[in-house]
Specification:
A 7-stranded antiparallel β-sheet has the order 1-7-6-5-4-3-2, with helices on one face. Helices cover 24% and strands 47% of the residues.
Length: 134
């Protein structure tokens, strides 16, 4: 199993951050996605990469402005993602943690590096989107 965490403080209101991160309709700010298909009233969804590769998500916790969690699965991996949101002195801190197990032996050495790369790209996309959102 590989674990990756990232914590970032953003000079933005928590509602704006929460709305962007949890929106399954507004994903155009994400540089890695081509589409999201929403199922079961948002309790499940499928994200498709720019290359059309699907990853399934099942929401397990949804506490507005506080916490969002989901299980993740595709052909290469399965795992769990946790997003914790907090607000203090006009800034929002996001703490994202992902625990993933590679399904294919050949993928195991690369999962941790892949997760960290994905998290970094996600945060950069989020920062850009928040500047446009203001």
């Amino acid at each position: 199993m590989a674990t990756a965490t990232i914590s970032v403080t953003l000079k933005s209101d928590i509602t704006k951050v929460w709305d962007l991160v949890t929106s399954l309709d507004n994903y155009s700010w994400r540089s890695d996605l081509s589409k999201i298909v929403v199922l079961d009233d948002g309790k499940k969804f499928i994200e498709y990469t720019k290359d059309g590769y699907p990853t399934n998500f099942t929401v397990t916790v949804f506490e507005p402005l506080k916490r969002w969690e989901f299980d993740i699965e595709n052909d290469n991996m399965l795992g769990h993602w946790i997003g914790v949101f907090s607000f203090k002195d006009g800034e929002t801190t996001i703490d994202f943690s992902e625990d993933v197990t590679a399904k294919k032996r050949i993928m195991k050495p690369f999962v941790g590096t892949y997760l960290k790369k994905q998290q970094k790209a996600y945060v950069e996309d989020l920062k850009k989107a928040l500047k446009q959102y203001i």
